[in-house]
Amino acid sequence: MSRRDFSKALALGAGALWTGALHAAAPARRIKIGYTCITWGTFPRGAEAMATFEPAVVDIAGLGFHSVETFAEVVEDWDTRGALGPLLERHKLPLQSAYVRMNLTDPAVRKDDLAQVTRWAKILRKHGATFGVLAPNSVKRDAFDFKEHRANIVSALNDAGKALADEGLEAGPHPHTGTCLETSDEIHAVLDAVDSKYVKFAPDVGQLQKAGADAAKLVKDYLPLVRHLHLKDWDGGPHFGGYCPLGQGKVDIAGILEMVEGVETPPTAMVELDPSKEAPLTPQEAAKTTKAYLMKLGYDFRS
User: Residue 225's domain spans which residues?
Assistant: First the structure.
């Protein structure tokens, strides 16, 4: 039996909770949902983008989300200046996770990448984070041969997963459009081959849907490996990179949450929405809209 089939078998019990669940009153929820910072323009792209982290923290905390996620580079920058701990403490907002970028296809840079991953992991644990979201590198998809790079992708994920585990963090890949890990077939090929002791699954359900996959089915296929989740909706519209506040797009957010709530130890979960010029909603308004949707599903927020 392949890992994929084995995972499916393990997932049957939890997956059964999904069907028809929305016709009953929402049960008690165990997942405490956080929010990522990219909606506010927080990217590791210079001082101005780094500075948007504080406004993001202020809004996320003010709306009562339970935790925050940002890029590992942003965490390191704020930690180096001695500003991260005081900021999070001031707003009583835990750091849950970070987006850890590395090159999965080029073994020539592996040693340097792993040294960087280890450095970031130490800082993340210092500030209480529990998960490293492994971000695949961008590629030219029209010329990309996945089979040629599959072995390097798998070995790089295994090495990074071990490095993060050594520092007390879980880790898993975050498939993303325009990268070396995008399609459903690629995800299956990688997750069936990695060392699941060290490498879990951190899907972004909006990215999966945008790439043409059935996001809910992929989550169900690898439910025992799903240890971190980006909650993201997709409608293909002109704003937010084609994404939208939760509940307004094509992703079965409610069904996916029902599935992951049903496992013995639910994953951590972060809402994410891409930034957008001339957006119809401010970042705070978009987050508030998503919060209202999640409250209808029975999720609570800090007062």
Answer: 3-12+31-296
